[in-house]
Amino acid sequence: xxxxxxxxxxxxxxxxxxxxxSTTGFRTKHLRLSLHDFAIIVPVLDKNRFVFIWNYRHPxxxxxxxxxxxxxxxxxxxxxxxxxxxxxxxxxxARNWTNIGWLHTIPGIxxxxxxxxxxxxxxxxxxxxxPYERMNTRIITVKKAYQLLHExxxxxxxxxxxxxxxxxxxxxxxxxxxxxxxxxxxxxx
Length: 189
Description:
It is globular, with a radius of gyration of 19 Å. It folds into two domains: 3-34, no CATH class; 38-186, Nucleoside Triphosphate Pyrophosphohydrolase (Alpha-Beta Complex), CATH 3.90.79. A hairpin with a 5-residue loop joins strand 2 (13-21) and strand 3 (27-34). The chain is α+β, with helices and mostly antiparallel strands. The chain has helices at 78-90, 142-150, 157-172; strands at 3-10, 13-21, 27-34, 38-46, 49-57, 62-66, 69-71, 93-104, 113-123, 135-141, 176-178, 184-186. The longest helix has 16 residues, at 157-172.
């Protein structure tokens, strides 16, 4: 990159125009979004259920089935954000937290990362939604969640990615067993 300039800024979102030169010498301009990283949580309620949210998304003018997630505040670490967002969006808190990885969300235009956490030993509390948020908690069996995932019926890409990472993490755990249909279940969490 030879030069960058900020084109626009609205709240925490900044749009930059970068002058870049490829390894072959080709010069071009590239638009880049500066977005806060976020945490997304796979909350395991018990041996065979996850906590999801049914979330209204204004840009798509519709509802999506998602895992709880939220943007990191300035100076906030990923796990602190994950703990806060789980509590705010679902009312649940978790005794055990496992960072199962991170991924780029839209690498063609942003360096934003989604930090994925597995939360277990949940305790129910009261959700504290932001005034603009419209969402409800949904309890879904592990079997149903992975059925929706494998059938392509979950379309919230961070949720799809987080469930894929969680599946791998759950399979590495000795307490995971396959049932007669090949679904993986945790005996004890």
